[in-house]
Amino acid sequence: QMADPFLYDTGERSHYGCLGHEVQIEYLKAYVCRPSFSTDKAVIVVHDVFGWQFPDIRYIVDLMAGHGYITICPDFFKGTDPWTSTDHWADFPGWMKEHDPTKVDKEADVVLKYLKEQCGAKKIGIVGFSWGGMAVHHLMLKNPQLTAGVSLYGIVRDSEERYNLLSPTFFIFGEKDHTISLDQIFLLEDKLKQYCKVPYKIKVYPGQVHGFAQLKPEDMKPDDKPYIEEARRDMIDWIKMFV
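Request: output the structure for the sequence above.
Response:
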């Protein structure tokens, strides 16, 4: 029996009333929240395995919008079922084969086109969590339209093509994440030093488990709260610096 790799309990979430609304963009559904003033800056949020409707991810979208960005979380699973806390971990590898975080280019292009043509966005950043962190790492190697990225605890897959980032990218990890070893993080750092020509940053937050940074305030444990808030501030500061 494999331990649940997402150490926060997704069953006991507080209810969250969203500030944004849902839209249809070509073949994709998406959740959008806009700031109270007009802006030409936007952020794409890439959800984790629990999908685009999960309350934690919508909270992050609203948070980014509150900092002045047109923020959008598209359904990168294209209408297929997200992973749920009642699914069996034995089935997870098979589910991942059907939901490959490196096969997101077409969806990213659809969303970028929408942000530019329908929302007037000129600078667009991206942040992603877990599954979405892997998607962000992939897109920062492939898509020059993205001005900056933040990858939060995306599992690091080593290959020589994984380090030549096109735009500034910030990697956030939890020290106690048992899906990502510190060795993998050190390897990422070494390889980025060798290959990366743009600003990057790697930061490990003490005592934090996988999934820590998207918890809503009422779901945080007091010991973790300062690190969760710090990670979120760091994520927003990185986006503000480059987008």
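The beta strands are 21-25, 28-33, 41-46, 70-74, 123-129, 148-152, 169-174, 200-205.
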